[in-house]
Amino acid sequence: MDRFSLLFTRPYQVKLQKEIIQTPDESQVLVETLFSSISAGTEMLIYRNKLKKGTLLDTTIPSLSHGFAYPCKYGYSCVGRVISVGRKVSRQWQGRRVFVFHPHESHFIASPTDLIPIPFGMSSKDASFLPNMETALNLVIDGDPVEGEKIVVFGQGVVGLLLTAILAQKSGMTLVTTDKYPLRRNMSLRLGADKSLVQQKDIRKFLSKNNIGSGSGANLCFEVSGEPDALNNAIQTTGFGGRIIIGSWYGTKRTWLALGDHFHRNRIHIQSSQVSTIDPRFAAQWTKQRRINVALKMIQNIRPARLITHIYPFRRAAEAYKLLDAHPGKTIQVLFQYEGTKYV
């Protein structure tokens, strides 16, 4: 049978490629995709050619373990339905809705071990947020927030908003967010932020006015904007002994860091956070499966489908990337919807 795959062919260009897909072998399944979501941060690095050639895309996902070069397939958030199973695969998989970390494709072959069953009652649109919810959860694990802390989240894209939603469920914290786009700041407030501001200087004023930042600054900052300059803002916002967790992947972007008096005298700790691994402090208790299970529960609580601003038919994928490139302030989450399937 035929399938359609999305290819990044060169900077600012994508196309759909028709391919022949083989019948799954006795230990595999065939998945027909319902929805896949665009990871605007990483995918726009690929779209804009902001990754070094050869950069490993994702060492934990077999289909993405190769080095970056055009043309390439990418994406890691597919919600689909199992339409065929090999003879050694349990028939219980037949017809099941599943989530799979896989590039944007209309159909693909997978192993049952790659499938994450979507809980009954969860919409396919909500389920498409699983990777970003897992990332947000991993950020919280790395940040290890304490009740009553003053927390600032730099960037309110999808990961930033999900992080805000998780943190807002904890009581006693002061939660401030920042983003340059009004659409995202308004959503941030709806998800529970105490204040959502445009610039870092406004954050300092807010903390000081509320007797929070004077002499201390924020206890914990998360940098998930994708903009390296935001890291300097986080440094200046963080108080003595504070922590900065960086979830952004900057690609080839470069910046200078303000490591002068404020950083030098305040014992600020800067740490990267990446969802492929779990903080060694918690690795003995937290497995990948446990984190997935908790992320699914958070999806059921938060219902992130409200973050979807655009749904494009897969055949119009090029329009979606052009929108994200030219008008990011008009978008939060963009989804592809696949034709020829029954959408749920």
Secondary structure layout:
Elements: E1 2-10, E2 13-20, E3 29-37, H1 40-47, E4 78-85, E5 97-100, E6 107-110, E7 116-117, H2 124-127, H3 130-143, E8 150-154, H4 158-168, E9 174-178, H5 182-190, E10 195-197, H6 200-209, E11 218-223, H7 229-237, E12 238-246, H8 261-265, E13 269-272, H9 288-302, E14 308-313, H10 317-326, E15 333-337
Parallel strand pairs: 8-9, 8-11, 9-10, 11-12, 12-13, 14-15
Antiparallel strand pairs: 1-2, 3-4, 3-6, 3-15, 4-5, 5-7
Helix pairs in contact: 3-4, 3-9, 6-7
Short description:
The protein has 344 residues and is of the alpha/beta class. The protein has helices at residues 40-47, 124-127, 130-143, 158-168, 182-190, 200-209, 229-237, 261-265, 288-302, 317-326; strands spanning 2-10, 13-20, 29-37, 78-85, 97-100, 107-110, 116-117, 150-154, 174-178, 195-197, 218-223, 238-246, 269-272, 308-313, 333-337. It has 2 domains: 2-118 and 305-337, Medium-chain alcohol dehydrogenases, catalytic domain (Quinone Oxidoreductase, Chain A, domain 1); 131-272, NAD(P)-binding Rossmann-like Domain (Rossmann fold, 3-Layer(aba) Sandwich).
